[in-house]
Amino acid sequence: MMGAADSEIFQGCDDEQVRLMAEMCIEIDTDDNAIGSVSKKEAHLMPNINKGLLHRAFSVFLFNTEGKLLLQQRATEKITFPDCWTNTCCSHPLSRPEEILTKDQMGAKNAAVRKLDHELGITGVTTDQLEFLTRIQYMAPSDGMWGEHEIDYILFAQCDVEVHANENEVRAYKYVTQDELKDLFRQSETDESVKITPWFKLICETLLYKWWDNLACLQKVKDVETIHRF
Question: For labeling, which of 56, 97, 177, 198 is most exposed (least CB within 10 Å)?
Fold first, then answer.
């Protein structure tokens, strides 16, 4: 049940998105060691982020067999980064036994399978198909109240899937080539209605295209030990 403070924080927000803010994320230190549990709400409030609160996340990049990347546009109902274009699926392992696992990144992979289904209705991807590439740490505000501060597990997969998007999570989706993605970024520079999530922009500006060029042999570009700090 929400208290008075929560009612004020979530005034005008979508009921389902408010409900999801009660999920318990994994609080971590800067070396990605789990140190506790924290609600999604507390993990994303900028006053807590500014004090150093850090949580674990994942980002899935799903490519079809033609080598095109599946993008999603976050729903207008989302509390953080609404209407922004981003990679296929971005969310958080929860503080539960099957998602806090670190061996072979199984916690993040289990969470990714769950959220691919929840957000996009994709049921054809298994943990065995998800290739862990590396981790990144970044911090980014969404607005005056909300933001992100996370260590993000980068997961790649290549397979053909059926998409049945959850309209409360996903406003739109599309597959893009590298050139089409670059065009989207150029469009975002002149059209304020075209918004990109900060983590996706960061990944695209630093590492994505090298990974994409090696989609057939990801072992060449994997870096499982490093946490890239941005």
Answer: 97
Split into its structural domains, the chain has a count of 1
Q: Which of 90, 119, 169, 204 is catalytic?
A: 90
Q: How wide is the angle at C-alpha 153 spanned by C-alphas 149 and 159, nearest 5°?
A: 135
Residue 47 is which amino acid? P
168: domain CATH number? Answer: 3.90.79.10
**Residue 94: which domain range?**
4-229
- For residue 159, give every residue at least 6 positions away whose Cβ sits within 8 Å of its Cβ, in sequence order, or none: 62, 64, 65, 124, 125, 129
DSSP 91: E
Our answer to whether residue 150 is catalytic in this structure is: yes
Q: For the segment 45-77, what is each residue's pLDDT rounded down to a tens digit?
A: 999 999 999 999 999 999 999 999 999 999 999
* Catalytic one of 25, 150, 169, 204: 150
User: Known catalytic residue: 162?
Assistant: no
Report the C-alpha gap between 128 and 162 in whole angstroms. 18
